[in-house]
Amino acid sequence: MEIGSKEHKQLLMKGILKIALKTIFLGWVLGVLLMVPSFIRENTFSIGLSYAGQTIIWIALIYALAIAYKKYRQTFGALKNGAND
After folding, report:
1. What is the C-alpha separation between 12 and 54, in angstroms, rounded?
2. Is the pTM higher than 0.70?
3. pLDDT digit string, tens, across residues 40-77
4. What Å distances lie between residue 76 and 16, 65, 66, CA to CA?
5. At what angle do helices 44-82 and 6-40 cross, to 10 degrees?
6. Which residues contact 55 (CB under 8 A, 6 or more apart)?
7. Three-class SS of residue 37?
8. Cα–Cα distance measured from residue 85 to residue 78, given in angstroms and rounded to the nearest whole number
9. How far apart are CA 41 and CA 44, in angstroms?
10. pLDDT above 80: residue 4
11. Do the Cβ atoms of 31 and 62 come closer than 8 Å?
């Protein structure tokens, strides 16, 4: 497989997406675990944990998207500048 070929680009994209999805999933799991007490018993502490869980889910989503976008630009920008298509 040549660097910059269609297959190479697909594998790079697949790797970037895999890392982004793992990051989103990790944030989702952690966020849901923090939200579970508010499903069982609703009080001020469990509501606070629920807000923290929701915040973690959103932050993980934004972080994963930002990292994936940055990595995409770095990787494919280098391939465009370094190789002739």
Report:
1. 31
2. yes
3. 999 999 999 999 999 999 999 999 999 999 999 998 88
4. 11, 16, 15
5. 180
6. 31
7. helix
8. 12
9. 10
10. no
11. no
